[in-house]
Amino acid sequence: MKRLRTLTLKDIEAVTSKPTPMEGFTTEVCENIHGAVGLIDSKYDGDATRIWSDHPPSGELVYRLLEFRGIGPQNANRAANILARQFRITLADYYSIDISADAPVKRVFTRLGLVPKDSSGERLIFKARSLHPGFPGVLNLPGWEIGSKWCKPRIPLCRGCYMNDLCPSASVEEPQQKE
Length: 179
What we know:
Layout (H helix, E strand, L loop, with lengths): L1 H5 L2 H9 L9 H17 L14 H9 L6 H13 L17 H9 L9 H11 L8 H10 L30
């Protein structure tokens, strides 16, 4: 953090563009990084763990993450979810951490018959809240994993999926893939 505090926006842009530009590091991303360092420095005394170290309610953690430039609700929830599930950060509660209603999760919820095909992201979020009110975000990783590994957009690999017996959309026979 000590070193990051000394970097200007131009320094960050230089680091991400030389010797060859880092993919995805636009000026906007560099501004987000610079802003994040400034926020962590000013609001959390240079210690990012202070964002969650007081074991806030999940809604407060998501709110704190939303204060960072460039972070919207989906990424704030995704980050809170990772902190809670993978890093085992203790929070006062977990009920305000929602799923990320991205394409793989939506496909799984739809094919499982949990929501209609034309459902909005909000509808998926509220379905997850109704299925697991104490921590709806816990459904995100399995939904994403199933949607990425087996519940493919065009040719689902139903036989390998652990939801196969419960899925009303599961294929009895999988189409042969061309090699």
